[in-house]
Amino acid sequence: AAAFVGAAALGPVQCALYASKYPNVTAHDKAKFSPAPLSLNGIVLAQLAIGVLGVLLISSEYTTGLIRATLAAVPQRRTVLAAKAIVFTLATLTVSEIACFIAFFAGQAFLSQKHLETHIGDPGVLRAVIGGGLYLAVLGLLALGIGTAIRHSAGAIATLFGILFVLPGIVGALPQEWQNTISQYLPGNAGQQIFAVHIKQYTLQPWAGLGVFCIYAAIALAAGTVLITRRDA
Questions:
Q1: 80-85, long-range: CB within 8 Å, 24+ apart, which pairs?
Q2: Are 178 and 197 in contact (CB under 8 A)?
Q3: How far apart are alpha carbons 80 and 169 in whole angstroms?
Q4: pLDDT tens-place string over residues 125-173
Q5: Are 42 and 136 in contact (CB under 8 A)?
Q6: What's the pTM?
Q7: Euclidean distance between CA atoms 111 and 182, whole angstroms
């Protein structure tokens, strides 16, 4: 629910505010304005909820001891993890896609009052809207993998947010040439390219970025699968 509200509401609210203050916007800011990304700004907020939920999907069972009952009912531990991953991905993808489409059309409705809107058929727009849901779904799998590997909720959440938010700051302290090379392959930077309409220099192409993000999620899930089968509950 938090992810849905964040993804569906934040962007349209920002679009409404921008449209209301448009007469006072500077020419420089008008030149940089892009309507589709503004509608999808809520994805940044939704990823916090999806990330936490992905971790808690399994770490909470370790915290309460319920994991023992789960594994007693289904001794095939890989099956347990696969079932969680499938159900969580389908739920996250469905909710996220609906929220992203609502955010886009609602946001553009506000911007159309000042004739600033873009359309779903414009270059890169449909891919960006669909990509927002794909990004959140893959993020959920990354969080689930980290939660399975670490098992402790606080540690897993800290690790996930460290990867998404702290690591780019660390790379930002490196020399510019290193930043240009490394930053585009960081999980968050790579994954977010799929809902970017305009591709900047020193960033991956949208589908390539999503592919890199999927690799990170696959590695996390693979590590979680190995550890859940080898450790005691």
A1: 80/228, 81/144, 81/148, 81/221, 81/224, 81/225, 81/228, 84/57, 84/58, 84/144, 85/141, 85/144, 85/221
A2: no
A3: 36
A4: 999 999 999 999 999 999 999 999 999 999 999 999 999 999 999 999 9
A5: no
A6: 0.94
A7: 36
